[in-house]
Amino acid sequence: MELEKEMNVKKESPSLVGMFASPGLQFERIKGNPKIWVPLIIITILYTVGTTLMALSMDTDTLIGTGVPENQVDLILGFTKVMMAVMGLFIPIFGVLISSVIQLIIAKIANAEVTFKQLFSMNTYIMMIGAIGLLLNMAIRFGIGGNPEIYITSLAGLLNSEKAGVFGSIEVFGIWGVILTALGLHRTAQFSKGLAWTIAIAIFLLQIGFGLIGTLLQGAPKL
């Protein structure tokens, strides 16, 4: 009975919506039946809508606050809006691809039995959390205004900070993604719990590090 139940789980297709209610089950399904194209298309659409809302939420004050000269702000704002909207088409594929390649290299070193397709599918489904986070935050920003670079669900948003910085990296959906990455690497990629959590936390700390670098660069004196 247990073997039959396990086989049925592996045959069933994973669900993007299921990533919110039963991520562990979805990772088991991904291990036995990895899906890529349909979930990737859906997530790309969500990201494109989210980045478009982010672009529409930008105004001249946002760019002036980053040091853009006032006489160039309108031109740069228009260009930035277009580029930001287009980015939604590429963020999912490149994000999933880079993560999967790095994890596959680690898997080879750790002798974990996982394929590139399984890792790519796993990371695609994990990105569902980030896609919903982006869509929710940008919809709120579009409605109430403010700096779209600062998520409402981040510590920077909670503290009403004017810059994202390190506090902008400490965000509910981002932390959720870290937890799911650790769970996915353990369930789907068969990494040990220690290795899975080490990789997930290392990625999170890198994001905080990039946020710190961004803050330092913004605070640097202009030449």
Range of helix content: over 70%
Total strands: 0
Number of distinct helices: 11
Low-confidence stretches: none
How would you sum up the major sheet?
A: none
In N-to-C order, the SSE pattern is HHHHHHHHHHH
Measured distance between first and last alpha carbons: 71 Å
Rg, Å, rounded? 19 Å
Q: Give the overall average pLDDT.
A: 87
Structural class: mainly alpha
* Mass-distribution shape: elongated
Strand content: under 5%
Written description of the protein model:
- This protein is mainly alpha-helical and 223 residues long.
- Helices cover 76% and strands 0% of the residues.
- It has eleven helices and no strands.
- The chain has helices at residues 2-11, 18-21, 23-32, 37-57, 60-64, 73-110, 116-144, 155-158, 165-169, 172-187, 193-219.
- Helix 4 runs antiparallel to helix 6 (73-110) and helix 4 runs parallel beside helix 7.
- It is elongated.
- It starts with a helix and ends with a helix.
- The model has no long low-confidence stretch (mean pLDDT 87).
Spell out the blueprint of helices and strands.
Elements: H1 2-11, H2 18-21, H3 23-32, H4 37-57, H5 60-64, H6 73-110, H7 116-144, H8 155-158, H9 165-169, H10 172-187, H11 193-219
Helix pairs in contact: 1-3, 3-10, 4-6, 4-7, 6-7, 7-10, 10-11
Which labels suit this protein?
mainly alpha; 76% helix; single chain; 223 residues
Briefly characterize the structure.
With about 220 residues, this protein is mostly helical. The chain has eleven helices and no strands.
